[in-house]
Specification:
Length: about 280
């Protein structure tokens, strides 16, 4: 049984000792966040949504086998993009099954926008996926309608307030199922100044009431070519204040490194060798 205290994101004390890897198997997304710009060929940029390669489930197993030789302290295998793991759930679920079969000692972790994870919670539990993160940027559709360009669900497109309402209702269902399944659930909120920074307290209250165990207010990283490219990154003082506010309601994560979708190594100290192994794995 993997030791859940070795997850470097959920246990601050583990971050200098245990490494994590993100397997970039989830190519597409089912929503459009106005701060997101995914690129697949960038090796120099460090932020969510960026990866230098996409792996198949079998390539992921090959990559992990090689990576473990270089990172003996690897404790967590996560899937966090570069799109959403449940926009095309087949690749995600097959990868998780194969990783569980081949690496029973690993903690498994998934990060999603929550739109389409609910139908997979039972199997996630069976596979002993111990940690799930859902990004909830607001709990009022009048706030979040400005964050999402569109939502695609069951082959239909939603826009504006309809999109925001649908996403929130799916996130509620997802979190309820995850908590009931006993999976450690974290909520990430991307803090966008002028759009939702005043609303993070409401998210914290809501998340606490749903049984979420930890919350992570993440400063938005302004990226060129997105609708929010001209909104400045939140100041550290604002993030500090928001973390204190969140902490009044539930434990807060303060050491998030805003990792790439193909991050590997200790938090904030990604292994340079991993990018070569990742590239090799695509030839497998
Ligand atoms: Fe990008 Fe993630 Fe938002 Fe999808 S859910 S648009 S991958 S930030
Ligand atoms: Fe952990 Fe934050 Fe990196 Fe996700 S982005 S792996 S929560 S440190």
């Amino acid at each position: 049984m993997p030791d859940i205290s070795t997850h470097p994101c959920f246990n601050k004390d583990a971050r200098h000792k245990f490494a994590r890897v993100h397997l970039p198997v989830a190519m597409t997304c089912n929503i459009k966040c106005n701060y997101c710009n995914r690129k697949y060929d960038c090796v120099n940029e460090s932020r969510p949504g960026v990866t230098s390669n996409i792996l198949t489930p079998d390539q992921s197993v090959f990559y992990l086998t090689e990576l473990k030789k270089k990172l003996p302290n690897l404790s967590v295998v996560g899937i966090a993009g570069p799109g959403d793991p449940f926009a095309q759930p087949e690749a995600t679920m097959e990868t998780l099954r194969k990783v569980r079969e081949n690496f029973p000692e690993m903690l498994l972790c998934v990060s999603s926008n929550g739109l389409n994870i609910a139908p997979f919670v039972d199997e996630l539990k069976e596979l002993n996926v111990s940690h799930v993160t859902i990004t909830v940027n607001g709990v009022d559709p009048d706030v979040t309608k400005d964050i999402y360009g569109w939502v695609r669900f069951k082959k239909r497109g939603y826009f504006g307030r309809d999109a925001a309402e649908l996403l929130l209702s799916q996130q509620k269902k997802a979190i309820k199922s995850l908590v009931e399944a006993g999976i450690t659930t974290k909520v990430n909120s991307v803090v966008v100044p002028g759009i939702n920074h005043h609303h993070i307290k409401e998210v914290a209250k809501w998340a606490s009431a749903q049984g979420v165990e930890v919350m992570n207010p993440i400063p938005m990283y302004p990226v060129e070519g997105t609708e929010f490219e001209n909104i400045p990154e939140p100041q550290p003082a604002l993030i500090k204040e928001l973390r204190n506010t969140v902490n009044d309601h539930l434990p807060v994560m303060t050491h998030c490194a805003r990792c790439r979708a193909d991050a590997a190594g200790l938090l904030g100290k990604d292994s340079t060798e991993a990018s070569r192994l990742l590239s090799d794995a695509t030839k497998f």
